[in-house]
Write the structure tokens for this entry.
Amino acid sequence: MDCLQVRRVLLLYIYQEKLSEEDMELVESHLCNCPCCNRELDSLRETIRLINRVELRFPPSEELKARIYNRIESNGWFEQSI
């Protein structure tokens, strides 16, 4: 994988979702040799950490979350990214 391909799937890599075992290994192999992508990975992890610290006044309903995830998947975002 090159940098562009890896950066497209870094969130999937972090959450270990929708990536095959082979793709996980390809990302890990790339990360071993690419300081730029490692910085991007660290930045994403820090962003996730900060977002998770925020307390929502009005958390989204389970129905809303399901609709958002369904919309993302129906647009083929995950498949296009890999």
About this structure: Residues 46 and 63 are 28 Å apart (CA to CA). The radius of gyration is 15 Å.
